Hints:
The protein has two domains: 8-91, Elongation Factor Tu (Ef-tu), domain 3 (Beta Barrel), CATH 2.40.30.60; 103-164, SH3 type barrels, CATH 2.30.30.
Amino acid sequence: MTKLSADRVTLGRISGLFGVRGWIKVFSHTEPRERILQYSPWSLRVQGEWRENAVAEGQRHGKAVIARLEGMTERDAAAALVGAEIAVPRSRLPALGEGEYYWSDLEGLQVVTLDGQDLGHVDHLLETGANDVLVVQGERERLIPFLPPEVVRAVDLDAGVIRVDWDPEF
């Protein structure tokens, strides 16, 4: 898995097209979802390469967010961006409190039990409504609730490790 550089934080991805005039659908990790529009310009990772694009206009549309990027006026041009990650420089985001993390900081970290058993690495996270869930890839996939301090006992970003109170058989 390719980690973002420490100076960028992933806020979402381009998930589809909207209409025929270059608008895109955005899957946003921000709360509320439309807050992603405030972080223009976006760094987009398209086919492994980063490029900057400013948001020309955008809005919430039902449960989704739609946007049009500067210079995008045709559906075919916007189609080339579907699947692109949306990131912004960390310096433009609000400071986090103690025990708070951006999802992109957790992705790629090793997950180990309290007795040192390696469960794998965090592939991605899911938002379930009740709590966020770590999707851990190892010898098999595990879904581990991100519940500090009950389940997630420690996150050490410098060491790249999350310590969990979790039964490896589960």
